[in-house]
Each structure stands twice: as C-alpha cells, then as structure tokens.
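Renewal narrative, Specific Aim 1. Our central claim is that a sequence can be written position by position from structural information alone. The example that follows is taken directly from our test logs and has not been curated for this report. It begins with the structure tokens describing the chain, in the order in which they were read.
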C-alpha cells in the first residue's frame, strides 16, 4: 500500500508540475502578446505624434499664417481704394496695386497649403473676386476713381466674414489634431501600463515558482550536504517536491550517499581486516624469527666447533664446505635481523619520536666509517670524508647509524676494487636542514630500476647477476628510518659510473636557532 501511495503521490506531483508548467507557458505567451500589442501601440502612438507634428508644421501653421496675411492684405487694399476714391492721391493707387498683387500671391499660397481640405476657400475666392470687380478699373490694375462704397463695403464685409469662418475651420482642425494626439497618447500609456502590470505579474509568479521549485529544494539539498559534513553521513535529500531537474539531482545525490555509505562500511571492514592482518603478520614474523634464530644459532655454533676441530681434524675440502654453510647462516641471520627491524619500525610508527635526543650527525657518520674500515679494506675500496663541525639533529642514534651503515655498506659492497666512496655533510637544499651524501664509483643501477629499489626484497638486476649478497631490504629500512625522523631520501645513479644517495634531515631546534 505504501508503494502504491508513493507512486500515486509521484503521479499527482508530476501532474501538478505539468499543470503549473502549462499555466506558466500560457502566462508567458500572454506576456509576449502584451509586449507585441504594446510595441504596436507604441509604434502607432509614435506615428500619430509624427503625423500631428507634420500636419501642424506643413498645414495648420501655414494656414493660420496665410489667413491672417489674407485678412491684413484685404484690409490694406480696402483702405487704399477708399483713400483714392476720396483724395484721388496716386499714393493710394499705388498701395492698392501692391495690395491686390500681394492678395493674389496669398490666395495662391492658401490654396496650395489647404490642398482641398477647406471648401470655404472657393467661396472666399468668389467674394474676393466680386470685391475686386467692384473696386478695380476695368482692364487695368488701378483702382476706380469713383467707388460705390455701399456695394464694395458689403462685398468686403462678406469676404472678411468668409475669411473668419476659414480661420475658425483652421482652428478647429488644429484642435481635432490635438485631440487625436491626446487620445493616441492615452491609449499608448494605457497599453504600456497594462503591459508593465502584466509583466510584473508574470515575473512575480515566475519568481514564486522558481523559489518554490528551485530555491527552496536547493537550500534543503545544501542543508543535507551540511548535515553530512557535520557528521551525518547517511542524511538523505528530500525528493518529494521541486522541479524535475532538482528532484533528479536530489535522487542522484541520495544514490551517491548510499553508495558512499556502502563504500565507507567496506572501508571500515577492510581497515579492520588490514589491522588484523598486520597483527597476525607481526606475530608471524616474531614467531618465525624466533623459531629460525634458534636453529640458526645452533647451526652456526656447531659449524664453528667443526671448524675449530672439536670433533676431529677436517680436510681443506670440508673446511671450504663449512665456510659456505657459515656464510649462508650469517646471511639468514642478517635477513632475520632486517625483518625484525622492519617489523619493529612498523609497530613504532606513532611512538618513534619518544627516543629522539639531540645528537651530532657528524659523529654518527664518523663512527660508521670506523666500523666499515675492515669491509672497505677487504674490498680495496677507499672511503673518504672529513667532518670538522657538528651538525645537530633530533633522532635515535642507533637507528640513524643503522640507516647510514646501510647506505655506506651498500656503496662499499657494490664498488669494485680501486674505487672510492665519498661522504659529506652539507646544508640541505631547502636551507633548513642537513644533507648527508654518499657518492661511490661502483657498478651503478639501471635507470628503469631506480624507482623500484625502495620496495621490499627488490634488488638491482646487475647486482643479482653478479651474485652479490643482499636481502633487498636495506634501502627500505633506510627510507623508513629517515622518514620517521622527518627527512627524505634521494637516489641518483648511472649504470657503470656510480650511485649517489642523499639523506636530508631537519636540524635540531637549537641548531636551527643558531643558524643566521
């Protein structure tokens, strides 16, 4: 039942998401339509403004100016013709000629600007022509000397009345244009406000949906991650709500969390198994070494007794055989000692620093040189090195001497007769420690085998081919001891030319403080 309910909730959730997405899509489409309408309305409003400005500039304003000029010109002509009729002064006649000439130009300009929009212009032209007929001398541009003032005055009044009506029509045209402009601007403003309101509603709804479908689930997912970081590795994210992408992300995160929990459990089991194997290995090594050392000690003792003649005189051939047995017994004893040392070093990983004391590394190297003089003399190898100043380090004297002994002993062992081994103590490359360097002129190491020499029981192929004795544990012991003292080991070699081994160790605090 619970699984059915969960599937039902999932179906309902998906259906709800689809409905919300459909609503959101419709709102977006409505918003786009509103934007298109707003753009069209804005374009229409702009065109209306341009039309109004153009009409005002090219028609209404010129019409207003032309009607005013027409009225002034008519009044000038009326005044001139009356003055000539009364005084017969040629000045009035000339003014009449100029005014009637200007009147023709004004009439032409008024007709051109009106362009058929004002039918009153035709009526005005008829009345003006009748007044001209009453005031102008026939077949001439001069005024009549005798004027019928009653008839001409009536014609002039009629012309002025028609002209006033024409001016009123121009004013009405201007007001209509302004009204159309105001209506256009009102419609455009209303469209813009509607589009802005609709856009705000769509944005607010979209933000609310984004907050509910993305922001809140992502914050919850972030909280789940924080809970895991704070010590709840099995904390799971909520997958019951949110956008499909966020739900998928939460599901992926939960799957990763479950896999991580399984891996962590497997790791804990593996670590426990490794600890148990390490304990069993240590017990096995200790037991095996104990069981091996006892018979080897017995074998070595009986071989010495045979060589000393305690059981009768032995032949030279028997002595050579006993010498081989004794040599191999010593090799086995060295191998056992190396295994025991490695086992102790592994067990003392966390407690090795308890035995560290301040000591002079130069003194340790000098003691190793003294101890290896017999081996170097037998191999006809020269070991050189002068150490006049102290190099103070913190460490275990026995362990450090063992590491240096392994390095120098290998150099002597792998250097042919007549070769040299050079030892030196210098400041480390970092400037905060001391470097012990052992450089020999021995057989060297193949370049492709240098990196593997620090693996247990691994020996160089040329050393094995020449049957030079060794356990393959010497450099492993060296690296373990040096790293437990906070140092590093370096090795460089050229086959046939020689090998250089370096040990970098930190100085003791007192020596570090005394360094300028």
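The sequence written for that structure reads:
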């Amino acid at each position: 039942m619970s699984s059915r309910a969960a599937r039902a909730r999932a179906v309902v959730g998906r259906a709800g998401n689809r409905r919300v997405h459909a609503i959101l899509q419709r709102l977006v489409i409505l918003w786009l339509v509103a934007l298109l309408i707003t753009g069209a309305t804005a374009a229409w409003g702009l065109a209306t403004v341009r039309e109004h400005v153009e009409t005002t500039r090219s028609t209404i304003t010129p019409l207003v100016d032309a009607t005013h000029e027409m009225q002034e010109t008519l009044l000038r002509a009326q005044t001139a013709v009356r003055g000539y009729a009364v005084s017969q002064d040629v000045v009035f006649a000339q003014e009449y000629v100029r005014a009637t000439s200007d009147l023709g130009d004004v009439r032409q300009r008024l007709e051109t600007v009106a362009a058929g929009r004002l039918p009153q212009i035709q009526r005005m032209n008829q009345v003006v022509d009748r007044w001209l007929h009453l005031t102008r001398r026939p077949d001439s541009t001069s005024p009549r000397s005798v004027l019928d003032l009653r008839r001409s005055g009536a014609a002039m009044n009629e012309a002025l009345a028609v002209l006033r009506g024409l001016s009123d029509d121009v004013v009405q045209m201007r007001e209509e244009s302004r009204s159309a402009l105001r209506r256009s601007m009102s419609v455009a403003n209303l469209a813009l406000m509607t589009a802005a309101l609709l856009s705000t509603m769509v944005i607010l709804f979209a933000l609310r949906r984004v907050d509910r479908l993305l922001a809140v689930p992502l914050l919850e997912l972030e909280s789940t991650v924080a809970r895991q970081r704070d010590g709840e590795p099995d904390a799971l994210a909520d997958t019951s709500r949110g956008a499909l992408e966020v739900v998928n992300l939460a599901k992926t995160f939960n799957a990763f969390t479950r896999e991580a929990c399984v891996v962590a459990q497997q790791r804990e089991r593996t670590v426990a198994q490794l600890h148990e194997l390490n304990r069993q290995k240590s017990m096995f090594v200790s037991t095996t070494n104990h069981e091996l050392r006892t018979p080897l000690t017995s074998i070595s003792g009986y071989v010495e007794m045979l060589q000393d003649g305690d059981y009768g005189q032995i032949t030279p051939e028997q002595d050579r055989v006993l010498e081989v047995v004794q040599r191999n017994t010593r090799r086995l004893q060295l191998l056992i000692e190396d295994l025991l040392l490695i086992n102790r070093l592994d067990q003392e990983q966390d407690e090795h620093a308890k035995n560290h004391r301040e000591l002079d590394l130069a003194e340790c190297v000098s003691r190793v040189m003294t101890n290896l003089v017999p081996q170097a003399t037998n191999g006809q190898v020269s070991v050189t090195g002068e150490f006049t100043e102290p190099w103070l380090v913190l460490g275990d004297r026995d362990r450090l001497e063992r590491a240096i002994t392994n390095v120098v002993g290998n150099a002597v062992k792998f250097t042919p007769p007549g070769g040299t081994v050079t030892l030196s103590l210098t400041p480390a490359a970092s400037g905060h420690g001391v470097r012990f360097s052992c450089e020999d002129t021995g057989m060297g190491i193949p370049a492709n085998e240098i990196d593997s020499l620090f693996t247990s029981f691994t020996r160089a192929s040329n050393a094995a081919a020449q049957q030079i004795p060794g356990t393959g544990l010497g450099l492993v012991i060296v690296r373990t001891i040096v790293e437990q003292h906070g140092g590093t080991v370096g090795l460089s070699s050229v086959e046939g030319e020689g090998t250089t081994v370096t040990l970098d160790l930190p100085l003791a605090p007192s020596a570090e403080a005394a360094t300028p």
